[in-house]
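[Meeting: bench + compute handoff]

Bench side (C.D.) handed over the final construct sequence. Compute side (W.E.) agreed to return the predicted structure before the next meeting so the bench team could plan truncations. Sequence as handed over:
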Amino acid sequence: MIADREVDEPPDSPSELTLTAGPPANGGSCVARHDGRVVFVRYALPGETVRVRVVADHGSYWHADVVEVIEPSPDRIDSICPIAGVDGAGCCDMAFAEPEAVRRLKGAVVANQLVRLGGYEWRDESDATAETVGDVGVTGWRTRVRLDTSEQGRAGFHRYHSAELVTDLECAQLPSGMLEGIHSWVWPSGAHVHVAVDDDGDRHVVQSGPRTRGKTTTHVLEGQYEAVQRVGGRVWRVPVTAFWQAHRDAAQMYSDLVSDWAQLRAGMTAWDLYGGAGVFAAVLAQAVGETGKVVTVDTSRGASRSARAALADLGWVSVVTDSVRRALAAQRRRPDVAVLDPPRAGAGREVIDLLADADVPRVVHIGCEAASFARDIGLYRGHGYSVEDLRVFDSFPLTHHVECVAVLTR
């Protein structure tokens, strides 16, 4: 039984309201109104009449959680994730809706953000949808997870925007057996527990932290520190604590798409920015051949080590461990294409200005947050780039998160 979350009643706002949920908003909420004030309602679907609890007052708008569904949407179902929900874990915040309906909501949100923040009309919100990734379905798709630990030494998932943990580990994103036995282990308070199931089917459990004397140590408790990952016949050995696509089919799908959209030929030059372990650098290098050049850039030393090892046979690939901004400023040869896969905050104005100043003719841009992706698209368009194609993927089923990919030309 998951205990009710304690919520301080926000000042100057009612504790509970009855509202009709409106259209979806970025971040997993629906937009509703009360006496002219905007209320962002979590765990609601468009058109539902719901009783909500106000959990945060931001002056001009409130945040609220559903406590009772009075008139449900036909798209509402029993939660697919047994531990997610208003007073549960924040892992699967859209597990209460039909998966196809969730993909439509995700598409509508991206379409809305592109118009509002990017000045670009991708498609009408009523006709937008996110595409499925692979054939694993909406459950059991995740191959890597990080858990935090409680003062009592139990590993768990965070409640939404909370330091509190849910120590029931039966999240629907995880394949059967991935966290077997983890609930019974006692961990140091403040440690992070990293679990990965790699492409050989092996499980790896690594503890990082807690920090002592300003340093974070890691301990391998099962398997190896590096997990084996395969894309396009090439093998990577990636630290369990480092970034790798969480969805088991995402790395191959994005790699194939980047290869197609880059439109490279022998002898050309490509930049792979925020390149991580170099998955995209591998397909770019294959396209340009020994007479071409690929530069892959990332700030992570661990990712760069993985890239150098995996791409050691491709002598025309340079692996740079530095910020993208500094690396771009140091480049003297204009590329024929730049591929960017920035973190959730996006690439931002400074990096996109540098790409435009370098007169990069073709850009493949990947984003895992709708608002920052839309903003970046607007920045490109301000420099005279046009969107040639754009796709949205449901790479994080049961959640509000999406992955967006666009190819732009100048």
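W.E. noted at the follow-up: Confidence is low (pLDDT under 50) at residues 1-11. C.D. will use this when planning the next construct.
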